[in-house]
Amino acid sequence: MRVRVIPGAPLSGSISVPGDKSIAHRWLILAATARGRSRLAGLPPSLDVRSGARCLAHVSLEARPGLDAWTRGVAAEAEGHGFTWNIRSGHGASPILEVEGEGRDALRAPEASLDCGNAGTTMRLLAGVLAAAPFRSVLVGDESLTRRPMERVAEPLRAMGAGVRTTDGHAPLTVDGGNLTGITFAPSVPSAQVKSAVLLAGLAAEGPTTVVESAATRDHTERAIQALGGPIDIDGTKTTIARFQNGGLEGTVPGDVSSAAFLLAGAILTSSAIEITGVGLNPTRSHFLDVVERMGASIERVTEEQVLGEPVGTLRVRTGSELRGTTVDARELPLVIDEVPILAALAAHARGETWFVGAGELRVKESDRLRGLAVGLRGLGGHAGDEGNDLVVAGGGLPGGRADGGTDHRLAMAFAIAALAGEGPSEVDGMEAADVSFPGFLAALRRLGADLEPA
Ligand code: S3P
Q: How far, in Å, CA of 11 to CA of 238, rounded?
């Protein structure tokens, strides 16, 4: 889907964003493997989360009716409204999921391969869960997911005792689950997906499992297990977990701060004041706000409540700040791993250069984001280049032009936001990919006042 973006319209208003896809994955897994009842609100209708729910329904007989009902409900809602263009799903608008779990020991062999779609989180986290289930599962994904590295998760699960085969390091992934033994594991790349896969496997292993990371990554798995009373010990970037069967969970998934980041950036670039409510403010996810403040913007954050260990609150952008370039280094990169596209969009309008250094992980996301950002920003009339593990974005503004997000949701959304502050109109291709993480992205932008139309 191609969208024409006409710059100049200021944004205003208060809005919420769909639930967090990372948190939704963890809570869905914990609910489907619980022994007892769970009730989850605010699960987003994003394609990735629907992939996760569908895969879980195939291996969890007791949770299947609830998971199927939820998936049918969100599909009807999304498709009925025409997806990202019109859908009005904000935070908490989706149907509620109710499941009655029989426990992790009751997982059943799937009748077919499990299709994880575009979702790396579904594939890697489920591999951790299925590593302890005494049957064979085959995990497949779309073309983009099939290009992403899977040995990073297969290797520690094998060390714990599971039979895990990749296809030349990639999906399809065959998991022959069984009895696991705890390990101490230091991943070679900081990755919340790898850490979470090992911790979820550790919940069903004999003896303790420890993950030692070289840099902090998002900690939603740890917070949820802790909130449910699980045996988890966190010491900086060293996390130790022991066997635990949870008894069910209840909560509303916080709005996705990574989705909020696009709207906040849109407000910053158009010197507008907006408010985003009900959004997750976990510090391992909100570092984007610190980087943006370093660039000169001002965002007020107010934490209002804690839900299953996750801080939730409101973000407000105040008008009128001139942006300056910055450097994001390898140490802070894991904390803004999904925000590099939108930071690059902001950087294109800043004074001076912005560097993303040691950002090689971005080459193995939903697409090669370093290359995609450099090409896309140049398409919008800017100057940007990628080399090795680095991306540099020259500031100074964008004349406007055309950019293609391919099948990468965050690239398409970043280009649309960058174009909002162009000197002239732009066109962005691949906009339908926004549904992967932020269904209703275009509708939300329009509601705030942005001038966008189908091209
Ligand atoms: C995620 C972790 C990150 C992130 C992805 C979601 C998660 O991936 O990019 O969008 O839910 O754990 P890595 O752990 O591979 O960096």
A: 42
What strands, in cross-sheet order, belong to the sheet with 354-356?
327-328, 354-356, 390-393, 384-387
Contact 437 CB / ligand 1 (< 6 Å): no
Residue with tokens 């509303």: 252
Asked if pLDDT for residue 141 goes beyond 90, the answer is yes
Best residue among 193, 199, 220, 222 to mutate for probing ligand 1's pocket (most ligand atoms within 8 Å of CB) is: 193
Comparing CA positions, the residue from 256, 232, 258 lying closest to residue 244 is 232
Whole-number Å distance, alpha carbon 7 to ligand 1 midpoint, is 32
> Which atom number of ligand 1 is nearest to the Cα of residue 194?
14
343-382 pLDDT per residue, tens: 999 999 999 999 999 999 999 999 999 999 999 999 999 9
pTM of the model: 0.97
Q: What is the spatial distance between Cα 206 and Cα 160, in angstroms, rounded to a whole number? A: 9
Task: State the distance from the centre of ligand 1 to the C-alpha of 222, rounded, in angstroms.
Answer: 14
Nearest residue to 297 via CA among 357, 359, 347: 347
Q: What is the pLDDT of residues 379-427, one digit of tens each?
A: 999 999 999 999 999 999 999 999 999 999 999 999 999 999 999 999 9
CB-ligand 1 contact for 118 (6 Å cutoff): no
User: Could you count the other beta carbons within 10 Å of the beta carbon of residue 142?
Assistant: 17
**Sign of the alpha-carbon torsion through 13, 335, 141, 195:** negative
Distance 337 CA to ligand 1 centre (A): 8
3-class DSSP state for residue 2?
coil
- Residue 46, ligand 1, Cβ within 6 A: no
CA 300, 292, 349 angle in degrees (round to 5)? 125
Answer yes or no: is the C-beta of 380 below 6 A from any ligand 1 atom.
no
Q: Which helix (H) or strand (E) holds 164?
A: strand 163-167
DSSP string of 416-449, one letter each residue = HHHHHT-SS-EEEE-GGGGGGT-TTHHHHHHHHT
